[in-house]
Amino acid sequence: MSGGLADSAAEPEAVGDARAFGLDAESIEKVRRWHRSTGGAGPRDGVWRGNAEIVELFLLVATQWRVVNVPAARGGLRAHAIGLDYAAVAAGLAGAGVRATPELWRGLMIMEAAARDALNGLERSDDAPPRAGHRG
């Protein structure tokens, strides 16, 4: 029987994503063939090829957060991520021999906004713009 839970569990995530984004059958088949040709695993598994460089560079500097303590709901304090420390990010990129282009900064800021919201426990839809008052 096709289309059941067992079928969808066996389907690679990339193929499910392609289907969810409304790609036509031919494009979905190309994604399926690509997944089979790469063995479906690797250091970039789960990241679209066009995003892989930015993700890798973000991970290179992902410890460079500006964080403040804010009151927690149940008393005490909790850490609240404000954003990346751009001077530290620039130093980290330079130290790794990476030239910081405007395109690179835009990509890092997109990653920063999503990561900041996740670190702060906020839900964010893929099409939501960065929140007012924040750099990302």
Give a quick rundown of the structure.
With 136 residues, this protein is mainly α. It is 49% helix and 11% strand. Strands 1-2 form a two-stranded antiparallel sheet.
Number of domains: 2
**Tally the helices: what do you get?**
6
Strand order of the largest sheet: 1-2
> What is the arithmetic mean of pLDDT?
81
Oligomer: single chain
End-to-end distance:
46 Å
| Backbone shape | flat
Taking all Cα atoms into account, the compactness measure Rg is 19 Å
Biggest β-sheet strands, sense, barrel: 2 strands, antiparallel
Secondary structural class: mainly alpha
Taking pLDDT < 50 over at least 5 consecutive residues as the criterion, the unreliable ranges are 1-9, 132-136
Q: Topology as H/E string?
A: HHHHEEHH
Determine the fraction of residues in helical runs and give it as a percent range: 40-55%
How much of the sequence lies in strands comes to: 5-15%
Count every beta strand, where a strand is a DSSP E run of 2 or more residues.
2
